[in-house]
Amino acid sequence: MSDLSLLRHYITKDEPFGPIDTFQVGEVDIEVLKLLFDKQNRIYKSFRDRPSIIMGRRGSGKTSYLRSVYFDDQYSDRIEISTATLLEQIASIVQELSHDTVFTETLAKLWEKTLWTCALAWLRSNSETQPADATAIDNYLNSMNVNRGDSNDIVLWKIADLYKGEVENNPKNGLSNILKLFDQRNFNEAKAVIVGQCRSKEKRIVILLDSLEDFKLNIESVERAIQGLLKCVGAMNNPREVLDVRLCLPTELSGKVSGLSSNAIKDFNRQVKLEWTPKELISLGAQRLMYYIDIHYPRLLKGRSPQVELSREESHGLFRMALPEWITNQRGFREQSISYILRHTQLLPRHLLLILNSVFKRSGATQLLSPFPVEEKKIIYGIRQVEEKIVTEIFSAFKMIHPTAKDVCERCLPHLPRVFSTGELRKTFTQYGKVVFHGGEFFEFRQMLIDIGAIGRVMPEMETDVYIKGKFKYTAGHELMVSYEDQLCLHPLFSGIYVNNGKDERPVYPEGSGMNDQDYRNLDD
Q1: For residue 130, what pLDDT is reported?
Q2: Which 8-state DSSP code applies to residue 17?
């Protein structure tokens, strides 16, 4: 088992559930990544099929799942390449060729050979398992002006310079001349050495391309470059291939990105979507809570190892010990504390970890001897402390396609009750929203609020004495369809920030967020 002392820098009394982002863990701390990574979910099981695209919302764990290859022994080498640098270099070539006809299939070949060149350069300098005869690799890389020890970024800059030089010298033939470079410089011979070695050892290599905060999809050359990348990645990770690629893409831009694809069915065939259920999130949280207890209150474990996997019932039971069973919310309704926490997320790990860190954060000496259960007021106050941060991140994630979302919500949502009609929403848009929703009409305005999860559709058949049930897009699995007759509702995160009325209104509970709700996803076991 891994040494839990490694976690002491990450699981603290100020951050009891540890880092909310994998980037807070250094690349060399593989054992820490492994300890913090939760394999008890259907998402991880789907990775056995070697997906080439990881699609998820911001905060869904894309980087964590991208780096899960570090403890997957089918890979001998894992190569992280800067997506921004790679995309920038290929887009610059597309820009140089803008006067020519550039076919997506040809761009895909350029991507494939560029990725392979980066892999060959990395393997020559870093791999522990060097091929017996690396002459072909040395000859190829030397001919591309790539030196032993060059970083991935330097390799990309050097081969991009070669590409640009070829375009300048032969402007009429463009991309076809660039592709000839690889044949002239014995690319296939170098590739064959690695393919043969991997097959003999029954191992693979994987290139990791993380998501970007801003893909610059408003630039034509970038759009064309991404189109070629999707074609390339969609054709990789086949059973006989030894070089895999894992590319992270944001769900927030899925409509825009899939619209760039020349054949979305083929390009996204090997895609995994990171979608979470409440039980999986509680399992993730329970594992972190076990680490926290072991490091700071070990007597409470009574000799039990914190690294033993907990069943779903044990995970839920751990939180029942650590939290009061019931709380009185700010509207005066009694509800289960775990339900109160879950409905203030959009079922994303980052949302849950932010809330739990805020709720369980040490506050005063009285908590040192008897930390559990936390007080009711800490749950309510803890959520209030971070809900604006969560909503701000949602606005940021959708900024590319909904740049006015924050301004619109600030102007419109304070004038809405928690439950309202389409007519009320239209009236609010006309009076308050239209002035900041530049150039859009009401239905685009409503769709924006649906996309970001600010509003959902009321499900009257599922209402209870405690909750109004709402269906939100992030658990719909597709577009959330709303008719004029449907009642609409505000998500608790947004109503918590923007609405300050209606004390007697029942709270909204997003469908799919309950511990006993049906799994909304469509994944194969």
Answers
A1: 74
A2: T
pLDDT at 169 over 70: yes
Category of 237 on φ-ψ map: left (φ > 0), alpha (ψ -120 to 50) or beta: left
Asked whether the predicted pLDDT for residue 1 surpasses 80, the reply is no
Distance of alpha carbon 301 from alpha carbon 44, whole angstroms? 28
Rounded to whole angstroms, the Cα distance separating 196 from 200 reads 6
pLDDT tens for 128-154 read 777 778 899 999 999 999 999 999 999
% of residues, the chain, pLDDT over 70: 95
Query: Running DSSP on this structure, what letter comes out for residue 4?
Result: G
What is the rounded CA–CA span in Å between residue 68 and residue 272?
14
Alpha-carbon torsion, ordered 285, 287, 289, 290, to 10 deg: 170
State the pLDDT at residue 365. Answer: 46
Contact assessment for residue 490 and residue 413, using Cβ atoms and an 8 Å cutoff: yes
Residues in a beta bridge with 250: 56
CA dihedral 311, 315, 318, 320 (to 10 degrees): -120
75 strand-pairing partners? 204
DSSP secondary structure string for all residues of 73-131? TTEEEEEE--HHHHHHHHHHHHHHTTTS---HHHHHHHHHHHHHHHHHHHHHHH-SS--
Q: If DSSP states are collapsed to H, E and C, what string results for 274-296? A: ECCCHHHHHHHHHHHHHHHHHHH
Q: Can you tell me the distance from the alpha carbon of 203 to that of 72, in angstroms, rounded to the nearest whole number?
A: 11
In whole angstroms, give the CA distance from residue 148 to residue 124: 7
363 pLDDT exceeds 90? Answer: no
d(CA 86, CA 44): 27
Q: What is the pLDDT averaged over residues 504-516?
A: 90
Q: How far is CA 112 from CA 69, 81, 86, 106, 241, in A?
A: 20, 14, 12, 10, 12
- Strands of the sheet containing 468-471, edge to edge, are 419-420, 488-490, 455-458, 468-471, 508-510
| Sheet hosting strand 243-250, strand order edge to edge | 75-80, 204-209, 243-250, 53-56, 271-274
Is pLDDT at 502 greater than 70 in this prediction? Answer: no
Which of 157, 127, 124 lies closest to 142, judged by CA?
124
Nearest Cα neighbor of 383 from 338, 418, 417 is: 338
